[in-house]
User: Fold this.
Amino acid sequence: MTIKKSTRRMFSALIVVLLLLACIIPAQAASSPAPLSATINPNPPAQTVKLIFIHHSTGENLLRDDYGLLGKKLGQNNYFVSDTNYGWGPNAIGDRTDIPDWLEWFRSPSTPVTMNALFAESGQNSVYTRTLADPGGQNTIVMFKSCFPNSNLSGNPNDPPDPTPGYTVGHAKYVYNEILKYFRAHPDKLFIVITAPPVTDPTYAANARAFNNWLYNDWLTVNAYPFSNVAVFDFYNVLTHPNAHHRYNTATSSIEHIVVAGSNTSYYPSGDDHPNVVGSQKATTEFIPLLNIFYNRWKADDIPQTRVFYSDAAQDGWILESAENSNIGGAVNSGAVNFRLGDDAANRQYRAILHFNTSSLPDAAVITSAALKIRYQGLVGTSPFSTLGALRVDMRKPFFGTAVGLQSGDFQAAAGRTSAAVFSATPIGVWYRAALSPAGRSYINLTGYTQFRLRFTVDDNNNNVADFMTFFSGNHTVAAVRPTLIIQYYAP
Assistant:
């Protein structure tokens, strides 16, 4: 694929040079689009998809039936459109949509609250035709755009990312690099960046062009971004010249990003720097097929994979504390068809080790969810869930202690992740389940073994009576009842 792109880029450049020399067309340069799947599908989704658009006045004009027609056209392409505007959301965050403000939306302590509200929003905060019925559920697509003042970026065109707050090329790059971390953690949503429209003042025009070229051509590449859930629509470029485009070409079945050299200011002003009707409708016409392509690419490329692992019989089992309050392992049992959790009649704690060979996962896998399941077998005495607190999960890779096999020292060996998960005290049928935390998911060994140590929070209840539960181990002859690790991941 790299060879084909390089060849296409060289060929396009040669054609442009020849045409320029012949004075046939205005000065233009075609740049390669962001990486796409081999198949480009511009057709609308087969089912209604919920979309939310974060914007201010330019976006409101873009949505209006009597202006940009975007709201109506999105509906005709099977998107149920909602939007935010001034005053929207927690702490009126809708007031703040400049480039530096995206950190508050996507990379701040308030992000969870803001995103929960955004994903749940189904109202209209602008006027546009919406005839589709709400399909229910959360918004799947998040579109967001800053307004035209954000094209007045100071600094220099090639400035590197800079965390120093301000309306500069460097800080704009920094902001987009930072918010990409949120997008990476949420591959179940599609995020569409719409670049800020140009202004008529040429003072910072070179900076605006350089930044938007970086955003379109380089942003995802320099961050080695692995997913298809982020895309850029170059609204800025579309509004700089009639021959400037970011569109799908039906004749060649390809995406065109055509920049007209020297045209870095607004060609479509409306008395001020808001794009006029002609420019807005041009943008809508070019955007809709691209959105379909971005959506179809995302659905095709980022299909989640699920793997199920069973605990290894030879390495798992239970360990009994050597003496009450010693916190040192004593007797071990790796051969029984069950393992124990709780305490014995001498007030010694039982802990268990579960062993999984997770090396068959792709080396570049990004794990989005992982859960442990253990199947209940029996109970001696009182349930530890009622007396010993939560059943916690520690992790270590490649193994606890000094060897892969079960050892008494695994009882007290240091963990790589402590309390990486907590089992629900309420089973589903005969299964107890614990979902791994993000720290636990990131610790799963993609190239070797991952071990889990199970323990109740309180070591014993001091009643000198055995109170423990038994669960089936990896030694059971029926694989379906063994301890199970279920991992969902993406393989970029």
The chain has three domains: 1-30, 40-303, 306-490. Confidence is low (pLDDT under 50) at residues 1-38.
